Amino acid sequence: MGELKRGKTNIIGITGGIGAGKSAVLGYLSDNYKCKVIFSDDVANDIKKKGYPAYDELVALLGSGILGEDGEIDRAKMASAIFNNKNMLKNVNNILHPAVNTFIINIIESERASGKLDFVFVEAALLIENGYDKIVDELWYVFASEEVRRQRLKDSRGYSDDKITDILGKQLDDATFREKCDFVIDNSTDLKSAFAQIDKKLGDWRV
Fold first, then answer.
1. Is 33 in contact with 207 (CB distance < 8 Å)?
2. How does 163-189 read in b/e, with b if 16+ C-beta sit within 10 Å?
3. Residue 17 region, left (φ>0) first, then alpha (ψ -120 to 50), else beta?
4. Which of 2, 65, 100, 171 could be bridged to 137 by S-S, CB 3.0 to 4.6 A?
5. Are residues 59 and 97 in the same domain?
């Protein structure tokens, strides 16, 4: 990975476990810095639309039964088609993950070439697993303690303890995030503290 520099578009990956507060951090960055924010989940939704390569591949794999009346892929129907079928889920992910990566890399290359922005922030839970450390200038880790994350997920999403435990068990542990990332934002207390950490690092770039 490189380093942040003036006069170019710096690419920063934002990662962290579920419930850490990545969306709030990115909202603050979007409001206060000259940047573009890319949410991998939004990209995954966009590339399933008609006209994108993933659309044709998913319909070929799962059948036209996943389409709504408008001809677009219906999320609920698609979820039903892969429910409790690990092999089918793997096949779907083998279509979506490379397509998402290609789409994001194309945006990064376009913004780097134009040089109009100070930053492009890319959010994804799997940045490390997908090798984004080789693409971005820095990787940032949004941290919150497991206790805090559990409470947030119960309050905001109504998740049960068992569901939270299952999700956390599938994500990277804190030590791995810290080892792979260049900067840690501690969001265990309140957002004001998290934002202050960001401004301490990037304050000279504020708009």
1. yes
2. ebeeebeebbebeebeebbbbebebee
3. beta
4. 2
5. yes
* pLDDT tens figures, 70-95: 999 999 999 999 998 989 999 999 99
Token reading at 35:
């940047």
pLDDT at 2: 62
Q: 148 and 181: one domain?
A: yes
Nearest C-alpha neighbor of 183 from the set 7, 6, 10, 12: 12
Distance CA 24, CA 119 (A): 17
> From the centroid of its chain, how far is CA 97?
12
Q: Is residue 96 part of a domain?
A: yes
Q: How many CA atoms lie within 13 A of 54 on its CB side?
A: 22
**Distance between CA atoms of 148 and 159, rounded to whole angstroms?**
14
For residue 85, give Cα distances in angstroms to 58, 65, 81, 103, 162. Answer: 15, 16, 8, 27, 21
Give the Cα separation of 125 and 134 in Å (integer): 16
Residue 59 · residue 67 · CB < 8 Å: yes
Q: Are 137 and 4 in contact (CB under 8 A)?
A: yes
Cα 193 from Cα 144, distance rounded (Å): 12
| Edge-to-edge strand ranges of the sheet holding 138-143 | 35-39, 119-123, 10-15, 138-143, 183-186
Given a cut of 70, the residues of the chain with pLDDT beneath it are 1-2
pLDDT (0 to 100) of residue 189: 92
